[in-house]
Amino acid sequence: MHQSLSPSLEEDRNCIKDLGSIAKMSDVQETTNQLLDLNLHENQRSVQEMESGLRSESEDLQVTIGATVPTGFEQTAADEVREKLRSSCKISKDRGKIYFDISVESLAQVHCLRSVDNLFVVVQELNDYQFKETKEEVLKDFEELAGKLPWSDPLKVWKINTSFKKRKTKRNKINEPSSKEKIDNGQGDKRDERDVKKELTNNALESHILDYYENPAIKEDILTLVGDDLASCNDKTDEKSREETEPEVLKFRVTCNRAGEKHCFSSNEAARDFGGAVQEYFKWKADMTNFDVEVLLNIHDNEIVVGIALTEESLHRRNITHFGPTTLRSTLAYGMLRLCAPQPTDIIVDPMCGTGAIPIEGATEWTNCYHIAGDNNPLAVNRTANNITSLLTKNQIKEGKLSWGLPIDAIQWDVCNLPLRTGSVDIIVTDMPFGKRMGSKKRNWNLYPACLREMSRVCRPGTGRAVLLTQDKKCFIKALSGMGHLWRKVHTVWVNIGGLHAAVYLLKRTPQAFVHSSEQEGERTPW
Q1: Hey, CA dihedral for 309, 311, 315, 317, is it positive or negative?
Q2: Confidence at residue 163, expressed as pLDDT on a 0 to 100 scale
Q3: DSSP 8-class letter at 111
Q4: 398-448 pLDDT, tens per residue?
Q5: Do 389 and 345 meet the contact criterion of CB atoms below 8 Å apart?
Q6: pLDDT at 499 exceeding the cut of 90
Q7: Residues 6+ apart with CB under 8 A from 82
Q8: Which end of the chain is more exposed for a tag (fewer CB within 10 A), N or C?
Q9: What is the mean pLDDT of residues 309-318?
């Protein structure tokens, strides 16, 4: 005969059962946590081993980078490389090219050079190459050359560079949610919390990696950039299996740039035969427009340089979105500004700014100076203002926050009657009318002397500088000859502007004070 338990004893038994179940659950939870910790440590160790392997590989990887620069500004570009990359630089005999050696972790900084147009990694440089006498023999040598070149390290650099560019294009996706995400969030996001956390973590990692590419001044852990899609290392196993089952066939083209009179072959013939040998060697697919790899064959007299392009378009396309009839390249604008060595707190003026290429480049690179862009054409001033706004918007998207702005203003004025106090400007940098697309040669004979006189008025005596670009050299020299007491010519850089032989003049303002003349004041007319 069983005796029923009292209510208090029954409660105690139930409590003991609950405690037992809780103990079992805690054991399971503890075991689960230990397994998670173990997996986490294993993953971290594998990532660290991969990163250390990449570091050791990258530390030994030294390559030669070639860069095309505005002709005449090779020395300026070489100085920038020495200053920012601490690397020795060689100026090519072929005008408009420089070469410098870097370690692969400096690749992101190379893309941020302001004076270079296009970049390529050098596969091999052949000095004093002996061409055969007949075309058939020369082209046969080109075919044999493709299989003898050291492609391995340059292709590694190309692959790393490609991953840089892919991550850079993801910047907008990281900082700006897509329209689909906005709609989902508006209706109530039902995604798993862990998926959200994982996405945020991956986005943060992508953003962290991109910061190194956008801001090469950050040096810590720069080597973690090296590798194949390091930001998505969790998916490497799946990617590897896909690559094994479906190997990717790269598309390529060969571009030949040839200069010299003693060649018995054309650029097209050299590119055709060399490209055929490259295709046979790598089993790549030739595609002249939609290509992955661009192989460069640069021939200058008896010098041959084979390279792989690292830029799809020129790096000078960085500031201007609203173009005018004579928009100056940003790389050339940088070279002109660098010639006059801006110092902190300098006031820099472009009195004929056009689309604002010079002052915008100055405000971007020399942020501790104040830049004024002016033009007599209201359309030009409007383009400049739009370009400033576009650049600020791009910077805001890149940084993911409101921008502090740029030290620049745009104003409409008469270049021969500037609304500036006498001796208030430190530097004047401008692209003067060539008399072709803008203005006329006849008008320049009156415009140039009036411009130089007004520039000498506003420019600070003794320390003021002016850098002036013009193709109408005869007119400029004549105008300058009458201003010898106010301007002294220091240096001339000969440049090629769209096939036109032009000159950049560096002038120094003499200590002599500007003297106003009532007769000269009466002769001044607005332009």
Answers
A1: positive
A2: 83
A3: T
A4: 776 666 788 999 999 999 999 999 999 999 999 998 755 555 677 889 999
A5: no
A6: no
A7: 88, 89
A8: N
A9: 88
Q: For residue range 133-176, what is the model confidence (pLDDT) as tens digits?
A: 899 999 999 999 999 999 999 999 999 998 876 655 554 454 54
**CB distance 138 to 132 below 8 Å:** yes
Those residues with Cβ within 8 angstroms of residue 165's Cβ, 6 or more apart along the chain or in another chain = 312
Q: How many other CB atoms are there within 10 angstroms of residue 100's CB atom? A: 22
User: Three-state SS string across 482-524, please?
Assistant: CCCCCEEEEEEEEEEECCEEEEEEEEEECCCCCCCCHHHHHHC
Report how far residue 96's alpha carbon sits from residue 72's, in angstroms, rounded to the nearest whole number: 7
Token readout for 359 is 């002052």
* Type of residue found at 500: L
Residues 6+ apart with CB under 8 A from 420: 349, 458
Give the pairing of strands 118-126 and 62-68: antiparallel
User: Could you report the per-residue pLDDT of 326-355, keeping only the tens digit for each?
Assistant: 789 999 999 999 999 999 999 999 999 999
Residue in the structure block whose two tokens are 């192989």: 295
pTM across the whole model: 0.72
How far, in Å, are 48, 91, 401, 499 from residue 43 at the CA level?
9, 47, 33, 58
User: At which residue do the structure tokens 């409660």 appear?
Assistant: 11
E strands, 76-191, in order: 89-91, 97-103, 118-126
Residue 222 pLDDT exceeds 50? no
Which three-class secondary structure state does DSSP give residue 414? coil
**Whole-Å CA distances, 469 to 1, 414, 497:** 116, 19, 10
Orientation angle between helical segments 135-146 and 267-282, nearest 10 degrees? 30
What tokens appear for 388 in the block? 């400033």
Number of neighbours of residue 298 by Cβ within 10 angstroms: 22
Q: What is the pLDDT of residue 44?
A: 52
Tell me the pLDDT of the chain averaged across its residues. Answer: 78
CA end-to-end span of the chain: 122
For the cut 70, the answer to whether the pLDDT of residue 4 exceeds it is: no
**Chain centre to alpha carbon of residue 378:** 30
Question: Which are the contacts of 470, defined by CB distance < 8 A and separation ≥ 6?
Answer: 431, 432, 433, 434, 448, 476, 502, 503, 505
CB 473 within 8 A of CB 489: no
Q: 3-state SS of 317-367?
A: CCCCCCCCCCCCCHHHHHHHHHHCCCCCCCEEEECCCCCCHHHHHHHHHCC
Only one residue has tokens 């007319």, namely: 525
**pLDDT score at 438:** 56
Cα angle value 441/446/449 (rounded, 5°): 115
Q: Looking at residue 477, what is its pLDDT?
A: 94
DSSP β-ladder status, 303-309 and 347-350: unpaired
